Structures are given as structure tokens and as C-alpha cells.
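Researcher: Going back to the complex we discussed earlier. I've cleaned up the inputs and rechecked each line, so this should be the final set. Can you rerun the prediction on the complete assembly and write out the structure?
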Amino acid sequence: MKNTFGTAVSVTLFGESHGSEIGAVLDGLAPGLPVDEDFIRHQLSLRRPHGKISTARVEADEFRIVSGVFEGHTTGTPLCIIIPNTNTRSGDYSKGLPRPGHADYTAECKYHGFQDYRGGGHFSGRLTAALVAVGAIAISALRRNGITIGTHISSLAGIPDRPFEDIEADLETLDDLLFPVLSTRAGEAMQAAIEQAAAEGDSVGGVLETAVTGLPAGVGEPWFDTVEGVLAHALFGIPAIKGVEFGDGFGFSELRGSEANDPLRVVGGKVVTSTNRNGGINGGITNGMPLLFRCAVKPTPSIFRDQESVDLSTMKNDILSLKGRHDPAIIHRARVVVDSVTAITLCDLLATRFGTDFPV
Amino acid sequence: MKNTFGTAVSVTLFGESHGSEIGAVLDGLAPGLPVDEDFIRHQLSLRRPHGKISTARVEADEFRIVSGVFEGHTTGTPLCIIIPNTNTRSGDYSKGLPRPGHADYTAECKYHGFQDYRGGGHFSGRLTAALVAVGAIAISALRRNGITIGTHISSLAGIPDRPFEDIEADLETLDDLLFPVLSTRAGEAMQAAIEQAAAEGDSVGGVLETAVTGLPAGVGEPWFDTVEGVLAHALFGIPAIKGVEFGDGFGFSELRGSEANDPLRVVGGKVVTSTNRNGGINGGITNGMPLLFRCAVKPTPSIFRDQESVDLSTMKNDILSLKGRHDPAIIHRARVVVDSVTAITLCDLLATRFGTDFPV
Amino acid sequence: MKNTFGTAVSVTLFGESHGSEIGAVLDGLAPGLPVDEDFIRHQLSLRRPHGKISTARVEADEFRIVSGVFEGHTTGTPLCIIIPNTNTRSGDYSKGLPRPGHADYTAECKYHGFQDYRGGGHFSGRLTAALVAVGAIAISALRRNGITIGTHISSLAGIPDRPFEDIEADLETLDDLLFPVLSTRAGEAMQAAIEQAAAEGDSVGGVLETAVTGLPAGVGEPWFDTVEGVLAHALFGIPAIKGVEFGDGFGFSELRGSEANDPLRVVGGKVVTSTNRNGGINGGITNGMPLLFRCAVKPTPSIFRDQESVDLSTMKNDILSLKGRHDPAIIHRARVVVDSVTAITLCDLLATRFGTDFPV
Amino acid sequence: MKNTFGTAVSVTLFGESHGSEIGAVLDGLAPGLPVDEDFIRHQLSLRRPHGKISTARVEADEFRIVSGVFEGHTTGTPLCIIIPNTNTRSGDYSKGLPRPGHADYTAECKYHGFQDYRGGGHFSGRLTAALVAVGAIAISALRRNGITIGTHISSLAGIPDRPFEDIEADLETLDDLLFPVLSTRAGEAMQAAIEQAAAEGDSVGGVLETAVTGLPAGVGEPWFDTVEGVLAHALFGIPAIKGVEFGDGFGFSELRGSEANDPLRVVGGKVVTSTNRNGGINGGITNGMPLLFRCAVKPTPSIFRDQESVDLSTMKNDILSLKGRHDPAIIHRARVVVDSVTAITLCDLLATRFGTDFPV
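Model: Rerun complete. Updated structure for the full complex:
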């Protein structure tokens, strides 16, 4: 299975950047969940480029729900959302030179030249719009069950945001921010760094940090279908993500066990941990504490500086000068994609655990 | 599927730390691959505890191949290896207090008290012996096809090893090291740090760095079955791994696109990249360069210091004092587990790509 | 996974009978296969109702290929085909009484009343149009590799067609027949039986028999992914199919081993069997002889006679009188659906065996 | 996945007829289910050859539970059962001539000569002992939840058993029968037919009919994961099964819709059908009526008559004369295998529907 992910709840993704439409099929979601098209629109708006720090290609994202919704609720059958591509300028792209950092060369190796190369084709970040559209329904479904997901840019170009403090309140703050940071000052510095990179024809990367509250304990599996493994599998599907860590992640390498182990205690009749360095997961299974993870986002590979590449038809070295419309940073736009993929994956884990009527 | 992983080539893991036997079934491997029991023994020896820096529980790991091998070669049918547990001291364990950082509490939530709690039961690192045994066959199979895997401790307790330089030569060096580092001096400092932690009843974590050479370009899928996603899924199944990053991983967050993009060029009639910050993968698909990734390994949660825990029968706070035999560090032993899981996963990706006769 | 089937090559189906559109995503097909829209149209025409023996609801089936095709060839990425529903008369349907023999009552149990009940919703045979559209591409792909699939009505309402004789020639004959039988006379009798049933407000069932030539030996797996098991899994997904048998199938029950075993012999340097009672499969694996199987098709459950049902809102017995447009037989239309599902499944089995570049 | 089947509950099978041991891993079963080793022994005894109508190779089937059971209950982690092969006479087998009707030739094609050919190797019916052992636990688990499975020989060598009448009572009758028929007289005739065939060095086939009572309505999926499709997939994994039909199955071909549709009515506040021609499934989903299906079992291919075969080393036609110990019929022994595979598959479907704590 290649462009389908999930077991009890699964998502299938299709389309190309410069094709007529893109879309996604979300299958296995419980019947009877209310579908709020305004919320889908809201989520898509968080992904859409805005202002100077994003590409000038702005898509209306006029989605339509083709199946799986009846009288305003999910039916429980496959829910397909289609989004037309309208603002394509295919002339900006030619196949000649593979772009460094992109999938152009690997697509050539895998598809033997038959891939749709325009705008990255099937590899384009454009397809994440479809993930966001169906993800919105998963996010709503989880919220009805007391499960909230939120993500901020924890660092960009070396500039750190403040860490999560009061997670519930922080997640609420993040909800409507187009540039999702917890510290306004850090956000301004980050945006200045993006503009600076853009002015130099360059791009920047960063780290996204996600928190999920309200997850029940006992979800996930030992060994292979750990919550970490399943989530990471899905998250690495998002273009530009090159690292995923849970809790203290790579920070654990400098800790001792006495610091890394989260002490258990009873609070209000419930077992909790007084720290959460393990990010809400032990042995691959949720422990009821907030799920915490971070994704490394590499700088957008499309830049306006000359780059070394190879003319695959002649097998000669050449210089690539990109034209077109590109993002000097995509991390702020990737945030809602991470939330969406997380929501879909958690719906899968929860429906696997509690059956196909979950989330209710 | 819970304790089975993979599609074209899959592994199923079973057993408990204090049960009679543990084992693994490796299915889908091509027929006709030579099976070298000495190499399996060698690999198991790399995982076995040695000296002061490891637990005193040493298992003979007298494996037996139950199926799938005939006249010294794989048959192509499920290959099951069983390893008896001999050196168990179940009396060292009682169920009372869940150990912080372990899966004890989450197992209780998931299995409602029916789990075998002795020595961590099914969650025990002991089961990795079975992964190493079947993984040895996958590693051999890949080597026959020119694909080499190796891992070193890139940092431990804040002490860095030198990075990979000449990867092929470095991998050869690592092969027989019980404590896998590239710099002898760094290795000595690391072992001293482990002994120091052990003396204080504590434990240390670190980072493992893996390289794979010889992979063909064009393996992996866009979106969900990216090489990153599939490998990370498997790697997070290894106990104590809390982060996985490819290429520069989290380091990308401080780079610009002009630094992060690996320039393409032709060398010897072949397309290569002059740097390898993307770790041999673009768009989820191998590009023919060495595959590079790092795993964050948290400190062993079993420590000899008093820890806060909860008596689940009374739901009262309590203090846990661990006895038994534990590792002050498992990272050097986890190395061969990472190699094994990587080999199995790559066999899966390659057999998916090239068919069930691969590797040959 | 619910509405997705397959591993190396998979199909995802979505839509409802009275929704705006239906569609299917075919993923994993090799890149570079020519896509012939006329052939898709031809295949859809074989499924479309014709004349007195079918429903009066005729859909134009104006499909569009949304993704996965570029410059006339498959790209290797997900190929989505969308077909609008145009000729819906939703007023013909109300939810009140579940129709005997249909999925109405079971859908109510499963989806708790949220299903789109109009025209059978997601369960409608209408969705098979999408399967036929993507199946056409799989059929073409197999033909390029010398693999031909064909199906005839081997019996209907007790009237038998003649069996396959010269399979290659018979398959060619069947290609363009709207009513697929090998004996014209049998076909006329069958059609008369359908008209008779229709005149009485009733419907008829039958048996479809399929042959596939050109399959290589050695495809399929022992135990669970037998060719029989995988194909049957897919075929039972087709509405109204209630039995699947391979080779002599249920006829084996009256044979002795000496009759049932197909003798092996060498012909033209190739191992063949002199009979083919096992339908081209031994031990779940193809033996290079034609694949032969039969599907039992139950009579269309939509009939115009009064039927006993239950008003689920009052839980009282009631009498159902159906209106609307229905087929007195669907077996002749189901034929191309069987061919399509078979082709998709065989592409999956072949790509699993020979890798993702197959079929070429 | 090849020798693993299932999603929420899965089974992995390994071993060869003449290897040291065979075994199966049953994963995903809920924790806390009592494990009754006597019942496993009882089930194995139903599969073991008895008297003149079976092979003289009798195995003690001294199984051991290696994992997944603790203090008499399932833990919820993988449950592995191992059964040693003791009574092997490998000398009875040589590789030379592939046996008609067996997997010898297809195994050669698939495994390129590396398969363990002794006694059919991995294809041997011997492996069904491991399925029966783990299946016993699934059968017990379902019974605790009011779900009962039973199978009789509905016909053998053309001799019919009486059909199910009072299903609950009939299933109870079948429980302890070594030769599972509802009519004693039919059973005697069948056994005489087997002995007659044996005397002539031949073998017979038949049909097994299974009923399952107590299944809740609303289990299964439309399109691909229909109850029919999933069960058939698993059942075709059992050696010698060449056809599977649900309800009236192939008998539907001679019915009209007015006969085939099961009228719905309310009885005791519950919706039932007054007939059950659809075998408890509509639209792929259970309707709460007994599940009914039949499996065609071909005659054992091992017979003592001369058969045509091919010497694969010389590619010359040759005559095969089998020696060794073989069953003139395996249908009575296959019965408990069908029950076991059915139980495992239903546990999977139910755990998928109701979550991993089901069956309780």
C-alpha cells in the first residue's frame, strides 16, 4: 500500500500539482460525526500562503465533499474530498534539470521518466491541502471526544519559541494563528528571518512541536505498532520532514535515567507523571499524559540561487536557475498538515483500540 | 497487525522475558540465501552483555532454527528462530509498583492486569535477541547484494564519537567491536561515563548513527511509505528509541536551503550528490547515496535509585527501590538491534520494489 | 482497511448511488503503461444496462481521469477516476422499510442510521462503474504482458452455456458481447428467462465462469495469500456474489483423487497438465495453466413483488412494494466487473511477485 | 504478508512437515481469556488420524505454549504454540517427481528448488495442527461470548448428510464426533466409501458445511472486507479447499429473487429473517442470523495408483508410484481446521468492530 495509510481509519491521497484536481479519501471514520464545512475552510486557510513569507501561488481551495457525508454527518463509508487546481502555471516548469533537495531525480529513477514533473507532480506539497481537508474532520471528531491537537514553531532559523507551559491554554491560542508561535516576539524575529532569507533568494527550516491532550491511556502496541512508530510513519510522509522525536527525544542522550524517568504519582484518583519527558508514551503505549513530539522541517528546497545539477538527457553537469513561485519557508504552513496527519493517525489508533464506533 | 511488521518481507516477534522461550518468524525472504549459523552467533554476541557496563544477566542465546531453512539455505517459507530463556530469576520481580520510564503502567492500562509482568514480560529488551537472530540472515542477504549496514554510538552522555568519514572503511571497523565507536578515545570516555553512572546507581543515554551503503536508487514511496516513514516505524519498535532523524535531521532547522540542498553531479557516469545532508533520500525515495540516520536512545529506565511510583492496588503513592540485574547503558547492545531491524526493513522495501526473488 | 484492497497494487472505492460522483483510486500500477480512454469507454459500455433485460436507469458514465496519467501513460502514482452520477431519481427511495436481500438492514446496524440510504448508498452496484473504469487499465496492462481475462455466463436460471473449449478463441469471442455467452442459443434462452422473470416482477441469478490465460507459474503464496484466497476476497466484494470456486470446485466432492489430480507432462519443453481440474492453481500457487473459476451470482434482490419487511422506526412487520428502476438480472452486467476485479487483483499478485515495474 | 493473516487478530504459521517443529503465533487476542489446555488437546484429537480411514502417521501433538499465556489466561501479547514433529519418515520422500494435485511443481517454480520437499514441506497439511491449537483458544473465546461454531460433512463421494435443522442442537452433537455427520447412517455410508477408495489406492472429496450462531449484526464491511471475502480468504488457505459458498451459494443460480430474498420480520423485539438463504450476511455484513457456509474439499492428492508426472531434472515424462502413509480422505480431519480458521477470522472481524478488548 503506497498512498494509503492506516488500518481501522485510513487515508488515500491522489493528484498532482498541475493536474485538474487533487483529493483524499478518508475511510473508516465512525458514522454520525458532524461535518462542519466552515471548519474545513478554516483549516485550509491556515495552510494557504499569506503575505511576503509565502509563495505567490494562492489557491482558492474550493473543495467539495464527494462521498461519505449525508445530511451533515459522516456516514461511516469512504469520505472523499476533491479540490480543483486552478492557479497553475505549468509553463514555469520544465523537466530538464532535477532540482537539488527535491524528489525530481528519485522520481526519475522510480518512475522511469513517466512521472508528471510539473510542479513536483504527485510529490508536491500542494497535495497536503487534501490531507488538511479530510484531517479537519478527524480533528473535529477528536475534539468531540475531548482530544485536542496543536502545534507551534518551536524554532526557526535558530530562533526559539517559548516552550509549551499551560498546554490547554497554549493550544487554544495557537488555533487561529496564521504564524503559529507562543511568543509574539519570537514570531516577529522568525518572520524577519524568513523575509531576510527570501531577499537573498534562499529559504529556512525549523522545528514544529506538537501537543495532544485528552488521549486515554492504553492505546498503542508494543514492538511494531508503537504510538511513536505509527505516528512517525505518517509524519515522515509530509514533505520536508526529516526527523521526529517524542518527549525529550534526542535530548535524552544527555540525561541520566534518574532524570529521564517520569515519576508516577496519584493526583485526583488518577495516575499521572510529575514530569513528562517521555511525551506521554511508555513502551509504545499512551500513559494518559499529553502526547508531545517534534518534527524537523528542512528548508524549502526551491530557492532562487544557482545550483549544481545534472542534465539527465546528456548526463552532463549543468547549472539550475529556478523561476516560478516558491516559499522561503513552509514550516508555518506545514503546521496544520502535521495536526491533520496526527488527527487521522490518532483516529486510526483509537478506532483500532476501541472499535469502529470510536470516535463517537 | 501488532507484533508483525512488513509487507513483502515481514517479521513476527513473540515471547516474554521470563517465559520458556522467545522467538521470531521472518517471512518472505527469498529462497536460496545461504544461512550461516556462525554469523547469527556472532551477531548475538554483539548484543550480549559484556563486562562492567552491562547487566549480569547473561544468556547463552542457544538459538535453534525451527523452520524455513533446508540444507543450509532459506527455503522462502517462514523462517522461525527460537531462543530459550535460561538465566531467569523471576523472584527479582514483583508486580507491585510500576517502574517509572518502563511500560509497566501502560501495560496495566492496556492488558488490564493480565500481562506477564516478570522482567517487563513481552516489553523486555530480551526479545531483541530474536530480532538479532533473524536480522543476521537479512544482513547477510543484503551483503550478498552489495548492501552494507553499520552503526556507531555517535554520542553518549554528551561525549561525541567522530563522525563517519570513509563510510565503507568505517563500517568494516565497526563490524567486530563490542563497543561500537570510531574513535577509541571517545569510546574509552563513554565507557568511563557508563561506569560512573553505574557506580551512582544510574544509567545513561545516547545517540546511534547508522549508515547503509550500496542501496539502489528508486526504492521507497511518496507520501506514506517513504523510506524514512517505514524505517522509523520499525526503529521506534526498539525499546528506548525516542527519536529518529535522517541526514541532517533536526540540524536542518538551522540551515538555509542553499546549504541543505545536496548539489547533483555526474561522477563516473553516475548521478551523485556532492554532499549528503538528505541522508540518501529525497521525496521518500532512495537516491543511491548512502542512507544515513540517527536514533535517540534514552537512558535505561531500570536504575537503583529510589523512585516515586504508585501502588496500583491501593492507589497510594509509594517509593520504588529496584533490585535485580540491570544495564547502566544499553546503547552499545542496541546497536546490533538497530542494524537488524534496518536490514529486515530494507529487505522488505527491496522485495517490494524488485519482487520476491530479491535479495538474491 | 475497508474500501481499499490490495498490497502492491491497490484499489480504493468511494461514492454513493445518489451522491454527486463516484470514483476509484488505483495505486501501485507500474509507470509507463498506455492508457486508452476508448477502451475504458468500451468496458463501461459492457456494464451499462441495455434493452429490456436491464434497469431503465442508464448513466452516461462520463468519466474523467483526475490523476496518475500524464501524456497518455500511467505515471506510477495513484490513478483516480471520477464518474458523475447524473441520472438519479432519489425520490424513488425512502428509508422506511429495509429491502429483503439488500444491505439496508445491515447498514442500519452498522452505521446506526447515518448511512445514505438512497439507492443503496455506498452498497449500490452503481459503484462498480468505477471499478470497471480503473479495471480497464489493469486489463490492458495484463494484455500487454500476454495475460487475457474473459468471463461468460455459464448458467442462468438453470440454463447452461456450453463450457470453455478453445479458451483463447472463446475469450476473444466474449470480448464484445453485451450478453456474454459462448452458445448463441443458450444466450437466447437465458434472455427469454430474464424477460419472463421481469414480466412477473421477479429476477434471476446465475453463474459466471472466468478464464485467465498467460499467467506465469509460481505466483501466489501457501496458506493465506493463496491465489484462490486473494481472488475470492476481492470477488466477494462484488455485490450479489455468494460463492467462488476454482477449477472443479464443488464438483470435486464427487471425484476421486485419481480423477481430480491433473497429470503432469512435458509439452514443447514446458511442464503442463493434461487436464486442468485444479484451475491452474496447486497449493495456492499458479502452475502456468489457465486460471479457471466460477462465481455464483444471486438474483437481484430488487423485485416488484410484495415482500415482508419491518418498519424499523416502529419495529412492526409491514409489506414492502418497491418502485423505481431495477434489473431483473445483473449477471450479464456483472461480468465485466468480475473481469475488472480479477485484473486488479492479478496485477497486485504479479507486482508482489515480480516487483513494481510489473506489468511492463 | 504471506503466512500471516488478519488485522486486529492475526495468525502466523510456520514449519515444515519433516522439520523439528511446527507452530503458530496468534496475536491480538484480548487479554484475560482463560486458556484450557485440555480443550486444545481435545481439538487436536479431532484432527488426528483415526482408524482405517486415515493415514498411519499419527503424531502425539504434544504442544507447548511458548508465550502469551500467564497464570492460565491470555496476556494480550502474541501467543505462540509449538508442536514437535516426532513421527517423520523422511525416507519415504524423494524430490524427483512432482506429485500431481500437490504443490510440488508450483513450489519448484516459486522457490527455485530450495523448498523443503519432504512430505510437502511447508505446504503439508501437518501445519494445520498448529492452526487447530491456536484456533482452540479462539473457539473458546467466542463461546464465552455466546458464539458457537460447528461443521459437518454435508456430502462425501456423493453421499449427503442431512442438512442442519435445529442448529444449536446440531452443533452440540457435532462437538465430540471424530467423523462429524448429523445422520449416523450417512456417516456409515461415507466411511464405507472412504474404505472402498482406500482399498483401490484412491481417495475421495466432499463438502463441509459450517454454521455459526450468536454473531451480532453489523460486523463486516461493504466492498472489500465483506465477511464473505475475509472468511473465504482465510478458508482457501486450508489445503484442499477449492470452493467456498455462503448461504445458498451456487444454489442461488436457479432461484428467483422472490425465493432468494429472506423476508424480514420482528420476533421477540428483534429483527430476524424467516428464511436464511443469504447465510446471515447481506451486503457483506452480518445480519444477526446464523452464518452459514460450505467449503468444497478436493480428494487427497496422495494416492497409490500410478500417475503421470515429469522428471524435472531431465524434463522427461515419467510414472510416479507413491509410497508412504496417506489419507484416503481428509475431510473429516479438515473439519476442525475449518472451525479453527473460522474462529480466528471471526475474532479478527469482531475485534476490528468492537475493539481490542473483544472477545471478553
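Model: Worth noting: Helices of chain B lie at 37-47, 104-111, 128-144, 167-174, 184-199, 227-235, 257-260, 331-354.
Researcher: Good, that matches what I expected from the previous run.
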